[in-house]
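Good morning C.,

I know you're traveling, so I'll keep this short. The sequence:
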Amino acid sequence: MQYYVSSGYVGNCMLWWRKDGHGYSCDLLQAEIFDDTDPQLQTIAKDKKYRIWEKDYILSCASSHVDSEKLDTSKSGILE
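The tokens, ready to paste straight into the viewer:
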């Protein structure tokens, strides 16, 4: 099986352990995917500040969104 590791929330978004130990992200595409045989996952599981989630379950709950901070407001409106 494969797993994601969460460390909390930002607003109502889950905060995920990022790939290659590069901190945390709310973006699931940046999240590390662990195999159940990964020794690092075994170590992480011992720390109560983290939660381990089955990848397939999380993907079934995931939705995409648009980050408004990335929008160029000059591109909004009706095109002619």
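Safe travels,
E.
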